[in-house]
Amino acid sequence: MPVSHHPLAEEFAEYKKTFHELKLNNSHFRRLANEYEGLDKSIFRAEQGIEVVNDDYLETIKKERVHLKDQIYTMLKS
Fold this sequence. Notes:
The protein is mostly helical. The chain has one domain (15-77). The protein is built from four helices and no strands. Helix 2 packs across helix 3 and helix 3 (27-48) runs antiparallel to helix 4.
């Protein structure tokens, strides 16, 4: 199975305008989005074998990414 990134712009394409506005004007949202993108890149690199991490750590950061995505989605909807 091919491994891919999960960029927020694609994950929430229907909220493109809101996403852009929040990223520009809301420092908390911007921090969450940046943290999500960093985790997504780390997960991608681990799954590609570029970085070596143990399974527990990979599972932990995947859960963190999901938690951040939930927070971001909540902010986009409101």
